Amino acid sequence: MSVLEDSIQASFDGDAEKVCALQTNEYSAATVRTMAKQGFVDDDATCEEAMLVLSSLIPGFGGAGYALDEVSVLAENDDGKTVTLRATYTGGASNIETYEVSYVDGRWLVSGDAKTKGSLKSGATGPSH
């Protein structure tokens, strides 16, 4: 499994600690900011708090049968340290999402998605845990 598949499965499972451990600090912070702007969490929420809320929302926008179908590579940057991936889901209203994963401190971490792109303040920085 890829880091993105692991992260998505952890979200489905409600394992907020694992989700956050598979993200860069910047991506975790951007996700919290985005969720706070949408009124789902407080501005000072932790990554784990935000991921628990996100996990609880999955059944609402996914519905019965919502599951990860496949992850495919869309693009790779020139130095090979950031890859854009497409996650395709079965069931639910949101069937395709785009994510970035980056090689940071010797491991791949989820570093961005289409929803948080404007909230990221800089490039990928270290693991969140």
Describe this structure in words.
Helix content is 36%, strand content 27%. It has 4 helices and 4 strands. It has a 4-stranded antiparallel sheet with strand order 1-2-3-4. The radius of gyration is 14 Å and the shape is globular.
Give a brief outline of the structure.
This protein has helices at 3-13, 16-21, 25-37, 47-62; strands spanning 67-76, 82-90, 96-104, 107-113. The chain is α+β, with helices and mostly antiparallel strands.
Topology at a glance:
Elements (H helix, E strand, L loop, with lengths): L2 H11 L2 H6 L3 H13 L9 H16 L4 E10 L5 E9 L5 E9 L2 E7 L16
Order of helix and strand elements from N to C terminus? HHHHEEEE
Strand order of the largest sheet: 1-2-3-4
- Helix content estimate: 25-40%
Largest sheet: 4 strands, antiparallel
Which percent band covers the strand fraction? 25-35%
Span between termini: 20 Å
Radius of gyration: 14 Å
Q: Look at the structure and give the mean pLDDT.
A: 86
Q: Which geometry do the CA atoms define?
A: globular
Q: What's the number of helices?
A: 4
Unreliable runs, pLDDT <50, ≥5 residues?
Answer: 122-129
Query: Pairing-aware structural class of the strands and helices?
Result: alpha+beta
Q: How many strands appear in the DSSP assignment? A: 4
